[in-house]
Design a protein that fits this description.
Strand order of the largest sheet: 5-6-7-2-13-12
Largest sheet: 6 strands, mixed
Structural class: alpha+beta
Number of strands: 15
CATH topology of one domain: Chloramphenicol Acetyltransferase
Radius of gyration: 23 Å
CATH architecture of one domain: 2-Layer Sandwich
Order of helices and strands: EHEHEEEHEEHHHEHHEEHHHEEEEEHH
Shape: globular
Strand content: 15-25%
Distance between the termini: 51 Å
Length: 493
């Protein structure tokens, strides 16, 4: 018996007519490496049948609790037909990147059918140069970044020749309780919910200064500091800067439409900049995003005079975690130095800001996202979440956007014999988090960016990708000459 956590269920409740809460990715394939020279739907179906047990979330569907009184349960689907989840289509001529991105955006707009396991794959033929693409999406209530990467890895091989995967011993069946048992458990949990909610609120007090909106409340910072002084090691929990999000075109109610762009940056260039200035690869990634956001906003005369606020998801799933279904994540909320004109200053401030955020995250239980999700009863969150998200987007947006950086393998991988040339991730847009999401994945020497946007908020998503690449060129120019001691000290090296 496996029940969704409050955080897992929050991804379900966030869905609405304008929000689809699945995560996805686009793999660009070179079929020339495959023995037959093509990737077919039949070969993909056969591969999934052989390896489905390596991705447990893909064989489960939701079982709702009567009257929505509690979070749903997971239950296995007997006799699951993999073919029902795998589709094939072809691009019209000439089959370029813009056409692929437009097709993927249309598929990404569609919500998954909750009566079935919450995933789909779309094999897309006809990309220029004889290439193909595989778009796959899974509901966020079933996976996080780490478990999603593990599910992807289950399908991939180190050589064009697929490895032989032995089926494991049959695991214990995942079966949801019957309606009567669900109802009884829901009533019991409803009665005890006030006590659990109070415990969640108590555990959140020490983190009030890192929770968007709450951090701006009168006395929040003082209360959080006092709590940390009493219960925690204050040396490991530095104070955070202001986390008040300015108004931008990204923020406000979104529509159901999506736009997608993608592109790559050489990982060696990112590492060179990081090494030159004594900062981390992720600091460089965040600086690239800050620079691209600044350029895009300046072009539209919409650049705020204060830093943008980004939420950065952080995996907290341990290596020995047994359960690979659901979410084990938290989030760091950090300012982006979009208000600084000098790229060297942006690099320096971004590095300092991320170091502070990481120190604070390391010294904190990092559970406030889970605790916040658990404060209200399941029935209330199911009914009110999407409405609250839309209201908050109008009144007081807590953040400007979400930025994710997922580390991946630095060697070539193969799918059905075809070489994976790049993998471009996609995530979720909501009214609360804004109409723009930037996600990147490092793979085989590249940093692959996927940019998802609501066209009512970001009308030209390809221009944003262009600004990211321009920002990388700017940083490479700074790193080209041997920097002086003053320059190294300027970024905190």
């Amino acid at each position: 018996m496996r029940q969704l956590t409050a955080l897992d269920a929050q991804f379900l409740h966030a869905e609405s007519a304008t929000t689809a809460a699945h995560v996805a990715g686009v793999a660009i394939l070179d079929p020339a490496w495959a023995p037959s020279g093509v990737v077919t739907r039949e070969a993909l179906i056969e591969l999934m049948r052989e390896r489905l047990h390596l991705a447990p979330a893909l064989s489960l569907r939701l079982a709702g609790v009567p009257f929505g009184l509690d979070h749903p349960y997971w239950t296995e689907v007997p006799g699951l037909d993999i073919a029902d989840h795998i589709y094939e289509t072809a691009l019209p001529l000439p089959g370029n990147e813009a056409q692929l991105a437009e097709m993927i955006a249309r598929i990404h707009e569609r919500r998954l059918d909750r009566a079935r396991p919450l995933w789909e794959m779309h094999l897309i033929q006809g990309l220029t140069g004889g290439r193909a693409a595989l778009y796959a999406k899974v509901h966020h209530c079933a996976i996080d970044g780490v478990s999603g990467a593990d599910a992807l890895a289950a399908l991939l091989d180190l050589t064009p020749e697929p490895r032989v995967v032995d089926p494991p011993a049959p695991p214990p069946a995942t079966t949801a309780p019957g309606p009567a048992a669900m109802f009884a458990s829901a009533v019991t949990r409803s009665v005890t919910h006030p006590a659990r909610a109070l415990r969640s609120l108590a555990r959140m007090v020490g983190d009030l200064d890192v929770i968007p909106v709450a951090a701006a409340l009168p006395g929040a910072r003082a209360m959080a500091a006092a709590t940390r002084t009493i219960w925690r090691d204050t040396e490991q929990a530095p104070a955070m800067p202001s986390l008040t999000a300015p108004r931008t075109p990204f923020n406000g109610p979104i529509t159901a439409e999506r736009r997608f762009s993608y592109g790559s940056i050489p990982l060696a260039d990112v590492k060179r900049v990081a090494k030159t200035f004594g900062i981390s690869v992720n600091d460089v990634v965040m600086t690239l995003c800050a620079s691209a956001l600044r350029s895009w906003l300046r072009e539209r005369d919409a650049l705020p005079d204060q830093p943008l606020i980004a939420a950065v998801p952080v995996a907290v799933r341990t290596a020995d975690a047994q359960d690979t279904v659901g979410n084990r994540l938290s989030v760091m909320v950090t300012p982006m130095p979009t208000d600084l004109a000098c790229p060297l200053d942006r690099l320096r401030v971004m590095g300092q800001t991320m170091r502070t955020a990481k120190r604070r995250f390391a010294g904190s239980p990092a559970t406030w996202l889970n605790e916040l999700s658990a404060v209200f009863p399941a029935a209330v969150t199911a009914l009110a979440t999407s409405a609250v998200f839309r209201l908050a987007s109008v009144v007081l947006p807590p953040i400007n956007l979400i930025i994710s950086n997922v580390p991946g393998p630095q060697l070539p991988l193969y799918l059905c014999g075809a070489r994976v040339l790049g993998y471009y991730p996609m995530s979720v847009l909501t009214d609360l988090s804004g109409g723009l999401n930037i996600t990147c994945f490092s793979y085989d020497g590249s940093l692959d960016f996927g940019i998802l946007a609501c066209p009512g908020r970001v009308e030209d998503v390809w221009r944003m990708m262009g600004h990211l690449q321009e920002a990388m060129e700017e940083l490479m120019e700074l790193a080209a000459p041997a920097p002086s001691r003053e320059a190294r000290e300027a970024v905190g090296a």
